[in-house]
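Z., the sequence and structure:
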Amino acid sequence: MHILFIGDIFGRPGRTIVKERLSAIVRDHAIDLIIANGENAAAGFGITASLAEELFDLGIDVITTGNHVWDKRELVDYYKMADGNPHSPARRVLRPANYASGLPGWGVYEGQKNGVPYAVINLQGRVFMVSNDDPFRTADRLLKEIKAKIIFTDFHAEATSEKVSLGWHLDGRVTAVVGTHTHIPTADARILPGGTAYITDAGMTGPYDGVIGVKKELVIGRFLDNMPVRFEPATGDVRLCAVIVDADENTGHARHIGQLILRDEICSK
């Protein structure tokens, strides 16, 4: 199974480059399963039901999120409408599984693609972020319940040490641990000894002519005077950052992980 994971889709620029490039990526790399982090899809902050379904219409199978998942409160209603309906597309929009119990939404999705069972786990880190339940023990608990061999984990976390640690903790038990949140692609993609594909951060899919997606002059001003300002998405140097994992359907182990960074000159103008 060839799995494509698209890093944090940021605002309209990120959505546009995905729309323009996804079909060619799927064709050229024989992609079977598409996962994307979409928590910044709505102008950089959160995701709405309509944007989630727009991404589903492009062929994305599962959308993960992170600390911005509640920025658009209408997502809560989207989740509530899916209660009792296992076939609702809202169940394919994940929020971190280690959030407090009883919150709307789901942190894991189990499905089938081309007859192959798979699961996607969404977790959020605790170092330099708000306190949530332990992502390590949450993963341990979920793995006792998941039957699929192919298990993909999006770890939305700030600290590289926490991301690397979870990779080692889950090595051999999941297909991939891919980090998100920092919006900066790292150069450490590898297969761990137990067969788990790992990268600290897949990077952002969006405008790099800014500061992690935001207009640079706004962020620089904030650093200079510490005055509150409304952040707006940048527009230039749009790139699609992703990883492709080749997984063994029988063992669930990864055979290869490769980075994909595409620059879209049309979107960058």
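The domain at 2-268 is CATH 3.60.21.10 (Purple Acid Phosphatase; chain A, domain 2). The chain has a mean pLDDT of 95.

Let me know what you think.
H.
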